[in-house]
Amino acid sequence: MNPPAAAKKGFNRRHLVIMALGNIIGSGIFLASGAVISLAGPAIVLAYAIAGGIMFLEVAFIAEMSIVNPAPGSFRVHAAEIFGPAVGFVNGWMFWCSGVLGMASEATAAAIFTAYWLPHWPLWGLSLIYASVMTVINFLDARGLSRVEMWLASVKVVSLAGFILFGALALLRVFPLAAPLHTEVFVSAGAFWPHGFQGLLASLLLVLFSFTGTGIIGLAVADTARPGRDLPPAIYIITAAVTGLYVLAILFVVLLIPWQQLSTAASPFVEILHHLGLAAGGALLNFIVLSAALSGLNSSMYSASRMLYSLSRDRQGPSLFLKLNRNGAPVYAVAASSLVLFLTAVLAYVLPQQAFILLTGASGFLAMFNWLTISATHYFYRRKSLRESPDKLTYKAPGYPWTSILMILAIIAVLATSPLYPGQVPSLIGGAVIIGLIVLVYGMLRRTGALG
């Protein structure tokens, strides 16, 4: 069975960058940033810088292994090569669960942003509307999907860049503000670290959630004509763009508004414009962050459905998900991912105020386990590649083997300290239960001989 759209691999370097930016930049920065700032205070700028370094190494690991073996399923296939089919099965299904939970959080965020104009509409109803629209879009071919994503991704990248420019001009006093810049937060350790190092550690899981979505890079390789040429420069563009935009945007959030005044249930970017007396700008920016959430939902649906296709291709999922439509999209894999997304709208109905943080936390918890597996796989995969196919090792992630070891230790530390975030324990328990269920299902299927 050929990979999706095998006959017309439509991605090049520009498409890889667009899809990655669309998947990574989403509601994590535009909505969840208010919650993490409340935990770490101005030190959150440092947290985003650290997370950017972690993301770069993860992307480099994925790129190296994907160029050696550009298989549909990417890191799931690589993990199975090193650790066996059990780890590949768990890794793939864990990625899919993290993806659909991430999709649900983006749909919930889109509903929250829309409530700015339609406050009487239920969040669950708005979530269902957006889920339906994005499902239809994901039935397009690779090029059609990338064109939609190009517009959505461009809006949020330009908006973050515009916000940074606005903050820089304010800092340079090019134009006066209704409120002064709060530079005092960087003067003393007490102001910069209001909750100490513990606050920084408590924020890291949700901060890293803003950088997850990197798995789409490996998954998109199957739709890329020349991965060896296009992937290495793409990862540097992606990591530099995301980290630079995030760190500078958060820096100006902290400078433009007292961080203690930020709400954990609204976009801090919209709040800042209201704080500065620019209500019309707040409405425009709310439209922009809405498009960011929809972009994250769109690209997350792409990566989740492609992982289902890959699992089924290796007989670790129902063969139904191998069905392609005339555009080369795995139609039933998209539909199944969307169905789970529709079911999560129930959470937005039952817990409308807590739904976003709960979904974000659970998705981030599963994503960190995937990153942990990727780091461990890379440690052994480099040795395997040097031994079996050194000619294919045209790109090497920097700092091997120390960076692989560092990443393993860093992600374990993030997972160990994540319960420091108040109210996050239910998400962590939910994520752990999902992992346990996946392992249990694998054991049952293995005993019955249902797996390939």
How would you explain this protein's 3D organization?
It is a single chain. The chain is an all-alpha fold. The protein has a single domain (9-448), classed as Amino acid/polyamine transporter I. 72% of the residues lie in helices and 0% in strands. The chain contains 18 helices and no strands. The chain has helices at 13-24, 27-30, 33-40, 44-68, 75-83, 85-114, 123-137, 142-171, 189-192, 196-209, 215-220, 227-256, 268-275, 279-313, 331-350, 355-388, 402-417, 425-448. Helix 4 (44-68) runs antiparallel to helix 12. Mean pLDDT is 81; it is low at 1-7.
Q: Supply the number of structural domains.
A: 1
Average pLDDT rating: 81
Report on the biggest sheet. none
Look at the helices and sheets and give the structural class: mainly alpha
CATH topology: Amino acid/polyamine transporter I
Order of helices and strands: HHHHHHHHHHHHHHHHHH
CATH architecture annotation name: Up-down Bundle
Q: Distance between the terminal alpha carbons, to the nearest Å?
A: 14 Å
Could you tell me the radius of gyration in angstroms? 21 Å
CATH superfamily: Amino acid/polyamine transporter I
Indicate the low-confidence ranges by residue numbers.
Answer: 1-7
| Shape, principal axes of CA atoms | globular
Number of DSSP helices? 18
Percentage of β-strand residues = under 5%
